[in-house]
Input
Amino acid sequence: MSRTGSCLCGAVSFEVAKDIAETGACHCGMCRKWSGGVFLGVEVPGDQLSISGAENLTTYSSSPWAERSFCKTCGSSMWYRVTAPGPHHNAHHIGFGTFDTQDGVTLTGEIYIDKKPAGYTFAEKTHQMTEAEVMAMFGGAEG
Ligand SMILES: [Zn+2]
Ligand SMILES: [Zn+2]
Output
């Protein structure tokens, strides 16, 4: 079963070839600014993602290793894409809220947990990683 999604105005839509089951939160300051809240992403390899209306996207290079795309009309945060070479190249972290349904998907991970604002906490038991642990794993920094 595939999953579909779109931005708020519908100018950008997409289909993921395989169903999804997990989402992860990033608590870094850049995701907070970009998403306007907590960014919940679903990791999808680029070759499993079909995009319609890509000409309606604006893409911001937020770091030397990643970029963030949003709808130029309605501003929906669509995905974070890894541009750096390596095993994660072209991975898209699609905004969970842009999917047409969130049924059957569980929050399983949180990164930059040490950057999370103190005023809220997710109730789900997740695999949590600090900034230092993420940097050690990916060899990069937030962005
Ligand atoms: Zn839109
Ligand atoms: Zn982040």
Q: What stands out?
A: The pocket of zinc ion (ligand 2) is lined by residues 26, 28, 30-31, 39, 112, 142 (CB under 6 Å).
